[in-house]
Design the sequence.
């Protein structure tokens, strides 16, 4: 299975590539192809020192979409619409949104677009045949990158296409000790995306780092 | 410390009274004083069979407020404004809101009032000296009542009055194995209240019961 990461050289994307590439074929996309190649070279070395083979290749964002079966949009919310505007080829692909629309004011605030969530905005922008799911919203970049730590977290997955959602949940469940939970239709993504600013507030006000969640 | 539970004969309130009354003086309020008395009589017997002494007394909602240092508003959101309308005496008291404004449609939906959250609505309605915190939002009624089970959950606590928030966190941490987390100012309560419909969706779509959360 080929997973393309749009924004794969960003904080989240880079960590996801490290965790995913020993399991899946990962294509890291970036606005800057040189940066994507450098990130992948470094990633391959990092994994090699841990005795892990991987499949990791750096290309442009568009090439990552074209080559992939499943596309992860690892883009900060503020760049989301602009980035999608310059890309195409999402027809019939599974598209995963880990995007959280939020701002840091006095505290972290959930600031959804008028569609209600980033995932619903993506649904409006992309062609109707794109199979959009939200997932991985609450996993911190530092945790993706901390390869010596297991990811002992729950991952709510939302989507209107049941087949796509099952496939995404299968991917989640193969990564470290993540456990996927079906959170319902894509409309529920607003509640999932609101979790991340809450976790950032919990981290801040309790002086702990990189807080995640488990359902139990 | 005297804790008054407004709506103490409802699903959540009854369970809270059972968990709190072996530790604190609990005054159960209800629109129907006879019902409050009956609930307390049953609660005392239930706890007695478990060898637990308790302090539990059934009165009217107004008497519960008047007698308490800390008031818990264990009221469904749809009855919140109407119930508060007929009550007074909240001045200078700590008021805890476990209220979640939500509706069951195709799935569970977070439907906040125009203030942004139930806790912020309570703040608008009550006198300015009331020290409002949100807490206990995500603990299911069944779990409150399941006295043979430990409550192994995290409890985010929001509030603008730091002293009140610390006091509420201290109460949380004395109940079973609940762990309080400072979630920041009362404005963060919108993100906390949105968690409960998310958890109900998780429960529904994964066919599990009474899902709670742990931060980690």
Sequence:
């Amino acid at each position: 299975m080929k997973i393309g990461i749009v924004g794969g050289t960003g904080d989240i994307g880079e960590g996801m590539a490290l965790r995913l590439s020993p399991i899946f074929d990962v294509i890291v996309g970036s606005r800057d192809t040189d940066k994507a190649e450098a990130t992948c070279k470094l990633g391959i070395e990092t994994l090699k020192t841990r005795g892990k083979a991987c499949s990791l290749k750096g290309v442009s964002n568009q090439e990552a979409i074209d080559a992939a079966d499943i596309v992860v949009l690892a883009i900060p919310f503020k760049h989301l619409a602009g980035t999608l505007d310059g890309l195409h080829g999402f027809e019939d692909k599974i598209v995963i949104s880990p995007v959280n629309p939020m701002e840091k004011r006095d505290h972290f605030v959930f600031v959804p677009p008028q569609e209600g969530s980033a995932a619903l905005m993506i649904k409006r922008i992309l062609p109707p045949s794109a199979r959009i799911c939200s997932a991985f919203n609450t996993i911190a970049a530092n945790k993706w990158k901390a390869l010596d730590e297991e990811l002992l977290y729950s991952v709510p997955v939302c989507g209107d296409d049941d087949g796509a959602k099952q496939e995404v949940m299968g991917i989640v469940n193969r990564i470290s000790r993540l456990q996927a939970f079906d959170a319902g239709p894509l409309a529920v993504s607003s509640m999932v995306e609101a979790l991340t600013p809450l976790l950032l507030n919990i981290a801040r006000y309790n002086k702990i780092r990189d807080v995640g969640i488990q359902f139990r």
Q: What stands out?
A: Chain A has one domain: 2-206.
